[in-house]
Design brief:
It is built from 13 helices and 18 strands. By secondary structure, the protein is of the alpha/beta class. The chain has an eight-stranded mixed sheet with strand order 4-5-9-10-11-13-14-18. The mean pLDDT is about 95.
């Protein structure tokens, strides 16, 4: 039923009566449940361990989240950011990509699901009522995949129904799964974008364990498009490997042979980048990974990046292939400088605020057509 195996559930007694908790327990009737009084002490019992991320894909913690769950995208200093806001409903991910940045800073040995959804909605409602921008973009998928656990933990359905009733906010669900069937019958009103991170299939097979294949992802995207959802596509991270030109050109051709480009709301591109500590962790967990072979250097934000000339060449090629599909696609760069924008497109947003305005214009124009 699920592409992962839960071996034990740890249930915070404060969350025991939540309806979401009861749904979860009914979905996993054969998994042992241990009730806990203090989740901090629970975590201490497991530390230190050599692979908290790996262990966290087998142990499920059901609890409440205390504090803010809606935060601006961390972005990166001295680079243009799109003004996106992140909703944290799940921490850790059942998938296991070799390059996942969560390996570098999550030391909690649990796949953690937060069940106090009423407080989450109150926080989102308060944020939207502030009128920070005419149209705010919010989404899940920062600390976990948005849809990999949807059959078990229906937070995306819950949020999709909520955003369907909002005029000043739009939700994005980012995924590498094909688990879209729970979304297809919802009355979403076009206020939820379902987005896929796409990579050539050889890299999916080598570096993205537990994810859907490229064909499965595109089949799922087609289902969502037929159900009226706007689609987002993220070529991020783009990976520099020996046959990247052939791989990414074929990927673009295959993608748009299956889905309608005119019903794709946005496309992002971003070169592989990572905090310095990730390399040692990832190579220990994935000895055969080839992710760290490209020519790279520490960027101005402290992250390790491909050389600028490499990134610009990759972006230019992708823009060429995408524009050949249709010239009016909305394409943007994720976490890049104005200098790189100008080299790729011949122009650049003035700043992050300007890019956010361009997003608002794109979303409103797109929604008028559906």
């Amino acid at each position: 039923m699920f592409p992962f195996q839960i071996e034990r559930i740890y249930l915070d007694k404060k969350a025991e009566k939540d309806w979401v908790t009861q749904h979860l327990l009914k979905s996993l009737p054969d998994v042992p449940v241990e009730r806990v009084e203090d989740k901090k002490n629970l975590i201490k019992q497991f530390l230190p361990i050599t692979d908290p991320i790996g262990m966290g894909k087998r142990n499920l913690l059901i609890t409440h989240f205390y504090g803010r769950r809606l935060k601006p995208c961390p972005g990166t200093s001295r680079h243009i950011c799109c003004g996106y806001y992140v909703i944290n409903a799940i921490s850790n991910c059942p998938m296991d990509c070799s390059y996942c940045v969560l390996q570098g800073y999550l030391n909690n040995p649990f796949l953690t699901l937060y069940t106090n959804w009423d407080e989450l909605l109150q926080e989102i409602e308060g944020f939207l009522s502030m009128g920070r921008t005419p149209l705010s973009r919010l989404g899940t998928g920062e600390l976990s995949d948005s849809l990999a656990m949807e059959t078990l933990f229906p937070v995306s359905r819950f949020l999709t129904s909520y955003f369907a009733e909002r005029e000043n906010g739009i939700l994005e669900l980012k995924t590498k799964s094909a688990n879209v069937d729970p979304l297809l019958s919802l009355n979403h009103r076009g206020r939820t974008v379902v987005s896929w991170s796409l990579t050539p299939q050889p890299l999916i097979g080598e570096e993205e364990s537990g994810t859907a294949s490229l064909n499965e992802r595109i089949d799922a995207a087609k289902k969502c498009q037929e159900a009226g959802y706007p689609l987002g596509i993220h070529f991020d991270p783009m990976i520099d490997y020996e046959e990247w030109k052939k791989g990414y050109e074929e990927l673009v051709d295959f993608l748009f042979s299956r889905i309608d480009p005119k019903r794709t709301i946005w496309i992002s591109m971003g070169g592989f980048r990572y905090p310095a500590q990730l390399k040692g962790i990832a190579e220990k967990r994935f000895p055969k990974t080839r992710m760290f072979l490209g020519e790279s250097f520490p960027g101005r934000d402290g992250k390790i990046r491909y050389l600028q000339a490499i990134r610009v060449e990759m972006y230019r090629k992708m823009v060429k292939w995408l524009r050949e599909v249709t010239p009016d696609l909305f394409i943007y760069l994720c976490m890049e400088s104005r200098e790189v924008w100008k080299e790729v497109f011949g122009w650049s947003p003035e700043n992050s605020g300007h890019l956010n305005v361009l997003f608002e214009e794109r979303v409103r124009e797109f929604l008028r057509r559906i």
